[in-house]
Design goal:
2 domains; three-stranded parallel β-sheet; six-stranded parallel β-sheet; Rossmann fold; single chain; alpha/beta; 329 residues; 14 strands; disordered C terminus
């Protein structure tokens, strides 16, 4: 059997670092090339430079690409053309490369932001009214159609997940709307207080990155004939509002204080579903999420505290295993 050589584009981003590490563990360090626009990557790559992209694929003998580079919602609204170029044109470039070099698989993440105000608010199904109203959501919905097109027209085995908001302790929070659920842990540990830009009851679908990584690996391992969705699979994780997250953090850090100051980001988030139906992912490739809200909160606090050398008075690191004792990958 031919050895896979995998290119991860956006390897230093929100999910890229942990997914790259998991791929390297699975396929071997040499067989996974980490590419990004920062020096920490194996390869410096601007995915919009098509010749540069093709050179990397050809010279490294790449057989699979994971395209993770993207511009998220809040930043995309300020930089519409740049967001469109990165989110859509990079995908088309990768799909063209997949056709030319006969790559055996491509992974590209879509997003829960493809849904809009006309979509069902709760338990939003795989197929429903989809009317994205942000540049990020529009670009992701467009990308879903491109994935389906290249599969049907050229046989490119491109696979995709509609990620909810992702939570990770390995990457600093940026300008994403769901990044409040990362920043809140840092502020809870450092300042014991936080000002939230979402309303306290604004419920959104979220997911802990270890679950997102595992979902990606399982989808990519699934037999081709089992997959019935060639746009992008709904992926549910943890649906919660800021007040729910505050409660579980306070259970662990009783002195934590929160103020709410909803801004324009709250207006955008109000148009998204509060929860998803992931029945098709469960049926087609056996997806089952691993983390609940309490386990995620414990793991976040323990790991961020360790990074920042902060003592946790309520929970020591070894106790966290009780909440999630099985392997992540």
């Amino acid at each position: 059997m031919e050895q896979n050589r995998i290119l991860v584009i956006g390897a230093c981003g929100q999910i890229g670092a942990e997914l790259t590490a998991a791929l390297q563990q699975k396929f071997g360090r040499y067989n996974v090339v980490a590419a990004d626009k920062i020096l920490a990557a194996d390869v410096f790559l601007d995915v919009l430079n098509h010749q540069e992209l093709e050179n990397v694929v050809r010279e490294c003998g790449i057989t699979q690409i994971y395209l993770l580079a993207a511009m998220f919602s809040a930043t995309g609204e300020k930089n519409r053309q740049a967001a469109w170029n990165l989110n859509v044109k990079s995908l088309i470039a990768v799909l063209d490369i997949a056709v030319k070099y006969k790559l055996n698989k491509v992974f590209w993440p879509s997003s829960s932001t493809v849904f809009g105000p006309g979509s069902p608010k709760y338990n939003c199904p795989q197929e429903t009214l989809i009317q994205p109203n942000t540049v990020y959501g529009i670009s992701k919905r467009t990308g879903e159609y491109w994935c389906n097109y290249y599969f049907e027209q050229f046989g490119v085995d491109v696979r995709s997940l509609r990620f909810p908001g992702l939570i990770s302790y390995t990457v600093s929070p940026k300008d994403g709307i769901t990044d409040y659920a990362v920043d809140i842990f840092h502020q809870a540990l450092e300042k014991q207080q936080y000002t939230c830009f979402l309303a306290e009851d604004n419920c959104l679908p979220m997911m802990y990155v270890p679950d997102a990584v595992r979902a990606t690996l399982e989808l990519m391992d699934a037999p081709k004939e089992k997959l019935t969705i060639r746009t992008s699979y709904n992926l549910a994780g943890l649906s919660f509002a800021p007040c729910d997250l505050v409660k579980v953090i306070r259970d662990r850090l009783p002195g934590f204080c929160v103020n709410y100051a909803p801004d324009h980001r709250n207006v955008i988030a109000c148009n998204w579903p509060a929860s998803f139906c992931e029945e098709q992912a469960r049926k087609d490739w056996g997806w089952v999420p691993g983390y609940d809200l309490g386990a995620m909160a414990t793991d976040m606090l323990v790991n961020i505290a360790a990074q920042k050398h902060i003592h946790l008075p309520v929970m020591q690191k070894e106790e966290a295993a009780e909440f999630y004792p099985h392997e992540t990958f």
